[in-house]
Amino acid sequence: MKALKSSRRRFLGAVVLTGLIGATIGTTTVPALARAEADAAPLQERLGFWSPTEQELGYRAMETIFPANVIKAGGSIRNLQVADQELEVAFLHEHRPYTVDDFMKVNRVSGLLVIKDGRIVLERYGLGRQATDRWTSFSIAKSVTSTLVGAALLDGAIESLDDPVTRYVPELEGGAYDGVTIRQALQMRSGVGFGEDYNDPQSDFSRYAAHMGPAFYRQMASQPRVAAPGQEFHYSTAESNLIGAVVMNATGKSLSDYFSEKIWRPFGMEADGIWITSPEGLETGGICFSATLRDYGRLGLFMLEGARAGGKAVVPDGWIAEATAAHSKNAFGELGYGYQWWTGPGDAYRGIGIMGQALYIDPQRKLVVVIQSAWSKPGGPQYYGLQWDFIRAVAAAAGG
After folding, report:
1. What is the Cα–Cα distance from 296 to 317, expressed in whole angstroms?
2. Cys-Cys crosslink for 65: which of 11, 80, 114, 297, Cβ 3.0 to 4.6 Å?
3. pTM for the full model?
């Protein structure tokens, strides 16, 4: 694969402050970030364990902390009309009434966008965020990577979803991924063990989620096999990273460049996005591309409108239906799992990020909901339950 360009402004450790952090949080909170190295690992190494202040500043400026590639915008911007009247949303959660403001405060929401019939009916910002600020996606990146697999399939760069993953990532040969197909990896059904524990700094996720390149691929090949390929659903961010490697090796392009070429520019995104990379300059297919709130909304519209950009199909006929079908039922509560998309209820589907990110798409209602947050802990029923009740309330208020 050809060399990939990367903008690598690294945050070298918790004792080194960027101009953004120093200027924004002031001297009263510097000690929390500037602890001795013996007491605090660099921000890069403790992504799931940032303080609220680190989250609020870091999630909007990931390229100052990690090496990152640019997802270039350009050309005509897709206009988003704003409805004359804001959508009214009020609901009950655990017998308590909530307004939109209540929901945003409790779930630490930085950005909230609802698009109905192509028009913005609700748009709010919190945590000091501005409309021009990007925010990181966490695992919504998986859904993007899946869509880029569809693009590579239509382009002929990937011959078939039933090709073995090892055909495109040869470093995996002779290990746990022998016999695993691209389709099985998209469904998180490879049978390869991976510890996706967000609260354990020594888990596989904490150690490997931000890694790519040959050494990482060999590490994944050495992981234990816990089931035969295709038999069991087992959620793994590293598996999504490998899917990203398949796309990069098949197309000879970085994920950022391919994303920009196939979707970002032709669909009319307003601002550049960024995607964090490993030190080798390879994007992490499973986590953390960043964009403005409205560009996330445009991404939802791209899917809602049949994955067409610039008047052309980006994925094969039938791809969206297949990618958003429940290949694993009840994979997460009431939700199933498709090709890196969470599915249900009904025809609706969503991308989900562990710190409160959501991209919800309801084709029947022609509805897109974007939620971006900074939860104090990864996931948890106290957050997800409130978020899902809010989405249900939005869907009900939006109507058919």
Report:
1. 23
2. 11
3. 0.89
